[in-house]
UniProtKB/TrEMBL annotation:
<dbReference type="Pfam" id="PF00108">
    <property type="entry name" value="Thiolase_N"/>
</dbReference>
<dbReference type="InterPro" id="IPR016039">
    <property type="entry name" value="Thiolase-like"/>
</dbReference>
<feature type="domain" description="Thiolase N-terminal">
    <location>
        <begin position="5"/>
        <end position="251"/>
    </location>
</feature>
<feature type="domain" description="Thiolase C-terminal">
    <location>
        <begin position="261"/>
        <end position="382"/>
    </location>
</feature>
<dbReference type="InterPro" id="IPR020617">
    <property type="entry name" value="Thiolase_C"/>
</dbReference>
<dbReference type="Pfam" id="PF02803">
    <property type="entry name" value="Thiolase_C"/>
</dbReference>
<dbReference type="GO" id="GO:0016746">
    <property type="term" value="F:acyltransferase activity"/>
</dbReference>
<dbReference type="InterPro" id="IPR020613">
    <property type="entry name" value="Thiolase_CS"/>
</dbReference>
<keyword id="KW-0012">Acyltransferase</keyword>
<dbReference type="InterPro" id="IPR002155">
    <property type="entry name" value="Thiolase"/>
</dbReference>
<comment type="similarity">
    <text>Belongs to the thiolase-like superfamily. Thiolase family.</text>
</comment>
<protein>
    <submittedName>
        <fullName>Thiolase family protein</fullName>
        <ecNumber>2.3.1.-</ecNumber>
    </submittedName>
</protein>
<keyword id="KW-0808">Transferase</keyword>
<dbReference type="InterPro" id="IPR020616">
    <property type="entry name" value="Thiolase_N"/>
</dbReference>
Length: 383
C-alpha cells in the first residue's frame, strides 16, 4: 500500500459542553466550518481538488443529523461537488475518519482528503439519539448479562489493575497540570484556530489538586458489582465538551505536485475488539497489534496519546507497557482538555503532531478506547 501524509492539522478551542459554555452558542455545523476554513487557508490548497471530507461524529441527531461534514463544507462556501461522509466508531470516530482517509489514499482512491470530527455536547446531549431504546437487544444481553455503562466499566478496570482512588485523582491532577503548562508556554498555539471569538481552551483548570479532587463523590454504582469500592468521579473522568478538529492528508505524489510540506506520515494503523463488559481495555491489544504491524517496539515511541476517557484507561495501559510515564499524554488529555466524542480522535492527532515537532520526537502512537469494547491505534512519524 502507498503512503499517506499529514499535511496540516488544526482544532478549535475546547469549550465546556453545557449551557453557557464558550462554544455552546455556536451551531456544530459552524463550529466545524470554522476549522475547515482555517485548514484550507493555512495549507493554500484549492478546495475544489479535495476528493472527500470524512468527519467523525457520535451524536448524529438534532443539529448533527444532516451529515455535518457536508453542511460544514457548504457553510464554508466551498465547491458543491466535494462530498462528505460521517464516521461513527464511538469515541474513536475522529481517529477512524483519519484512518479511512489514510486507507483511501494508500489504495489510490484519494489523492487529497480531509479527515476530522465534530461534537457539540452542549447542543446535542450525549445519549439523546438513543432515548429510552435498548440498542443491544435480547441476544446480546443473553450473551453478556453483565453489560454496564462505561463509568461502571471504568470501575471494573480500576479494580482489575488495583488502581486506588488516590492513583486516579493524582493522574487527573497531572492532566490539568500538563495541559496548563502547554497552554501557558504556547504549546497549543500552532494547533488552535479561533472559533466564534474563542481563542483558548475553556476546560483546563490549572488549580486542580489531588486534595480538591478527593472531595468529589463517586459518579457511578451498580447492584451487579456490590463488592466494588467506587472511585470514578467527575474529576477523574473526561469532560463533556464542544469541539472540532480537521487534518489534510495527501498522497506523496499530490503533495509534491502542489508543493506542500507534509508534517508527518502514517506508519501503521490497527483496530480491534475486546471484552464489552470491561469495555475500555481495547487500547492494550490494539497497541500490541499496531506495533507489530509497524515493526516497532514501545521503546521506539517518543510520545503516546491514550485517550483519557477515564483515568483508569491510560493507567491500565501504562501498567502493561514499559514506557517512561513522561511520554504518556505529555500535554494532558481529555480529563483536562475535554472529550468532544466524535472530534477527539482528530484533536489528539493534532496535538500529537505538534508535540513531536516541538520536541523533536520521531514516532508517536495514538490509541482510543471505544464503547462496546473496541479500540483504534495509529502510529505516525514526524517528517
Amino acid at each position: 500500500m502507498g503512503a499517506a501524509l499529514i499535511v496540516d492539522a488544526v482544532r478549535s478551542p475546547m469549550g465546556r459542553g453545557k449551557a453557557g459554555g464558550a462554544l455552546s452558542g455556536t451551531h456544530p455545523v459552524d463550529l466545524l466550518a470554522g476549522v475547515l476554513t482555517a485548514l484550507v487557508e493555512r495549507t493554500g490548497v484549492d478546495p475544489a481538488t479535495v476528493d472527500d471530507v470524512l468527519v467523525g461524529c457520535v451524536g448524529q441527531n438534532l443539529e448533527q443529523s444532516a451529515t455535518p461534514g457536508r453542511q460544514a463544507w457548504l457553510a464554508a462556501g466551498y465547491p458543491e461537488h466535494v462530498p462528505s461522509v460521517t464516521v461513527e466508531r464511538k469515541c474513536g470516530s475522529g481517529q477512524q475518519a483519519i484512518e479511512f482517509a489514510h486507507w483511501g489514499i494508500a489504495a489510490g482512491a484519494y489523492d487529497l482528503a480531509i479527515a476530522g470530527g465534530v461534537e457539540s455536547m452542549s447542543r446535542v446531549p450525549m445519549g439523546s439519539a438513543r432515548g429510552d431504546a435498548d440498542p443491544f437487544g435480547p441476544a446480546v444481553r443473553a450473551r453478556y448479562p453483565d453489560l454496564v455503562p462505561q463509568g461502571v466499566s471504568a470501575e471494573l478496570v480500576a479494580e482489575k489493575w488495583k488502581l486506588s482512588r488516590g492513583d486516579l485523582d493524582a493522574f487527573a491532577a497531572r492532566s490539568h497540570r500538563l495541559a496548563a503548562r502547554a497552554a501557558g508556554s504556547g504549546g497549543f498555539a500552532d494547533e488552535i484556530v479561533p472559533i466564534s471569538g474563542v481563542t483558548a481552551d475553556e476546560t483546563i483548570r490549572p488549580g486542580t489538586s489531588v486534595e480538591v479532587l478527593a472531595g468529589l463523590r463517586p459518579s457511578f454504582n451498580s447492584a451487579k458489582f456490590p463488592e466494588l469500592d467506587w472511585k470514578i468521579t467527575a474529576g477523574n473522568s473526561s469532560q463533556l465538551t464542544d469541539g472540532a478538529a480537521a487534518l489534510l492528508l495527501a498522497s506523496p505524489e499530490r503533495a509534491a505536485a502542489l508543493g506542500l510540506r507534509p508534517r508527518a506520515r502514517i506508519v501503521a494503523s490497527a483496530v480491534c475488539g475486546d471484552d464489552p463488559v470491561l469495555m475500555l481495555t481495547g487500547p492494550i491489544p490494539a497497541t500490541h497489534k499496531v506495533l507489530a504491524k509497524a515493526g516497532l517496539s514501545i521503546s521506539d515511541i517518543d510520545a503516546v496519546e491514550v485517550n483519557e476517557a477515564f483515568a483508569p484507561v491510560p493507567l491500565a495501559w501504562l501498567a502493561e507497557f514499559d514506557l517512561d510515564p513522561e511520554r504518556l499524554n505529555p500535554r494532558g488529555g481529555a480529563i483536562a482538555l475535554g472529550h468532544p466524542l466524535g472530534a477527539s480522535g482528530a484533536r489528539l492527532m493534532t496535538t500529537l503532531v505538534n508535540h513531536l515537532e516541538q520536541t523533536g520526537g520521531r514516532y508517536g502512537l495514538q490509541v482510543m478506547c471505544e464503547a462496546g469494547g473496541m479500540a483504534n491505534a495509529t502510529i505516525i512519524e514526524r517528517l
